[in-house]
Design brief:
globular, Rossmann fold, 4 domains, ten-stranded mixed β-sheet
Length: about 650
């Protein structure tokens, strides 16, 4: 059996191709819809109109919805696969070998693409606090031709650089640039949500109207749950101009009707309303209204007090909440209260033991319940020696409100924040796990945006990086917040033995070399014999395989030495890889038999893939012998890099 070589253009070398997946789904539903176009499979619009009716299919420019210059290009960006990879950085991580949390440094557009195969349909809750479009610099200009190269230039990792201009209202593209940045990211984020998942998006007044329409289009108007109002400030300055805002918005969308909102914990104040004035054996209760503000003839009758025989009727224009027969049963069961002397108007008794052990969330989030901006800065200052290197962190209590609503009923949920900045979401996850003894996982993504000490709002952050001996980037501050938050959670909860670590990965170009001619044909041919980038490690290659084959980045990896070669088993044998630089003819058979024996021992549930370095084989005989033995022992997918 020949070994299939993974080329830069192979599906195994790229992130999920959403466009191809969409076409495959359409073909499965409506085979007649697909035709052949100049560039391959294409949609026959005439057939589409025939399937759904002319009235429901339109390509007209004048149609209801949010439109802006560049929308088509933004949509295409979401569909274009990434050729990048995520390189592991154990040296920046905490508890690399055991943690299930991820901190990814990179452009979130490319990272979201790379996460598609491994995490599509697996994220329970997404919270993002994107740039609020206040006229400051944008650091997310997407280059349609080569986004990885553009990213490396923007963050100063390669020579070149791209000038970033301020997104001011005078530019004429104030809202357009912001929408072009947000659209593909939200499109990709939706794919990652579970069917019972939910997304929370913080935003201010400047873009809330546009974001609402954008999210309606991506998630569906029927998926909108609420526009929660977060009261983020105590008050406003006496010299403030105009009508200053004291709030931010949090838009909430569910993935589907499978989402079941959680209830909020009851407060002591709410429970204080429950008494037991008549020593009822069922325990504490409070009185509740017995009437409805609607007249119903059959429910308009006299209630007779058992002690005083006094008759009570509903107020004019209303009626009792229960039919007369049911009301008599409630009275007999001592569930209707007439006061200690039996002369009060009747009221229902609501027992604390019978109500939900929580309250339904509303769209009003006052700072007394979820915190405010001063509180969030103090939380960071407590970690960074009374200095906050972040401009606008979010309070832990605010994010906990989202967790109460979004993850309370889920087993080992994954929480994603792809505008991580201050790392508040990761901190909130750790604190919640410590107090609830649950295992919520987080995935954070942050651009290594350079910090300029000459800019007032960035100086504290840049100085903090200097003190730490780290590069001056926001991502470095995010990682440091997570390290300190984990240490604080452990110190505050000495009995907690849960996960407070995180694995760091950094976005980079693929480990698989693409053909890049220099003009020297002889040298180009020699260089191309080495199919992998020369400055990459085996770990770099292994984790790219995990991403491109759809495995979790925290999946267990075991290592054995077989015939003197290092062999990795990932996910209990789902993937087996030997990336040694040389496999001779005499070694191939023993190596294959050893891998086959280990594979049998692991007994993975599904099909397995074995991967080798293409340049390692001494000749075609070694390659074909190894592949044939593996196939005979049930490992039929053998690939080379």
């Amino acid at each position: 059996m020949p070994i299939k070589k993974i080329e830069p253009t192979s599906p195994e070398a790229q992130s999920a191709n959403i466009q191809t997946d969409n076409i495959a789904q359409l073909k499965a539903l409506f085979p007649e819809l697909l035709t052949e176009g100049p560039a391959g499979a294409a949609i026959n619009v005439d057939v589409l109109k025939g399937l759904v009716g002319d009235a429901t299919a339109t390509d007209a420019d004048e149609k209801y919805g949010l439109n802006w210059h560049g929308k088509r290009r933004a949509r295409q960006l979401a569909l274009t696969p990434s050729t990048g990879t995520l390189r592991p950085c154990p040296e920046d991580s905490v508890d690399w070998d055991t943690t299930q949390n991820l901190m990814i440094e990179g452009d979130n557009l490319e990272v979201l693409k790379l996460l598609q195969k491994s995490y599509a349909g697996k994220v329970k809750l997404i919270y993002i606090d994107p740039p609020y479009n206040t006229g400051k610099d944008f650091v997310y200009p997407d280059n349609f031709q080569d986004n990885i190269k553009n990213y490396l230039e923007l963050t100063g990792q390669v020579e070149g650089g791209v000038k970033i201009s301020s997104n001011t209202e005078a530019s004429g593209r104030f809202h357009t640039d912001w929408l072009n940045m947000m659209y593909p990211r939200l499109k990709l984020a939706r794919n990652l949500l579970r069917e019972d998942g939910v997304i929370f998006i913080s935003i201010d007044d400047s873009e809330v109207a546009n974001l609402r329409q954008l999210a309606d289009e991506i998630f569906g108007q029927e998926s909108f749950l609420t526009n929660a109002i977060w009261q983020k400030k105590y008050g406003v300055s006496s010299d403030a101009k105009g009508i200053p805002g004291m709030h931010d918005h949090v838009l909430v969308y569910q993935k589907s009707d499978s989402f079941n909102p959680g209830i909020l914990p009851r407060s002591d104040k709410q429970d204080a309303a429950y008494k037991n004035l008549d020593n009822d054996p069922r325990g504490l209760w409070r009185s509740d209204n017995l009437t409805r503000t609607e007249y119903r003839a059959r429910d308009f009758y006299a209630i007779v007090a058992p002690k005083t025989k006094q008759e009570f009727f509903p107020p004019k224009g209303s009626s009792w909440r229960h039919p007369e027969d049911e009301m008599k049963k409630l009275i007999a069961d001592n569930r209707i209260w007439f006061g200690l002397d039996g002369q009060n108007r009747p009221a229902a008794k609501r027992f604390l033991s019978e109500v939900k052990q929580g309250v339904v969330a509303s769209g009003w989030w006052p700072f007394s319940e979820v915190g405010h901006t001063d509180e969030s800065k103090k939380e960071v200052q407590a970690l960074f020696e009374k200095v906050s290197p972040f401009d606008t962190p979010k309070p832990i209590r605010l994010i906990n409100r989202m967790f109460d609503i979004g993850i309370s009923d889920a087993e080992s949920p994954i929480v994603l924040d792809f505008f991580a900045v201050s790392g508040s979401t990761g901190h909130a996850v750790l604190a919640r796990n410590a107090t609830t003894n649950r295992h919520v996982r987080y995935i954070l993504v942050q651009l290594p945006e350079p910090l300029n000490p000459d800019q007032k709002e960035q100086k504290l952050g840049a100085d903090c990086c200097d003190q730490l001996g780290k590069p001056r980037t926001i991502a470095e501050l995010t990682k440091e917040r997570l390290r300190r938050a984990g240490a604080k959670v452990k110190a505050d909860n000495p009995l907690f033995s849960g996960d407070t670590g995180f694995r760091v990965f950094k976005l980079d170009s693929s480990n698989i070399r693409a053909w890049q001619p220099t003009g020297d044909i002889a040298q180009d041919l020699v260089d191309n014999m080495q199919h992998l980038q020369v400055d990459r490690t085996d770990n770099d290659v292994l984790y790219e395989l995990l991403l491109k084959l759809g495995l979790d980045l925290c999946v267990p990896i075991e290592v054995r030495t077989i015939e003197g070669k290092t062999v990795h088993s990932i996910g209990a044998g789902v993937l087996m890889a030997c990336l040694d630089a040389h496999v001779g003819v005499a070694q191939a058979e023993a190596l294959a038999l050893g891998m086959a024996a280990w594979h049998k021992e692991l007994a993975p549930a599904g099909d397995s893939t074995a991967v080798f370095r293409d340049s390692a084989f001494e000749n075609d005989v070694a390659k074909s012998n190894l592949a044939a033995i593996l196939e005979q022992h049930g490992i039929k997918q053998v690939r080379s890099l």
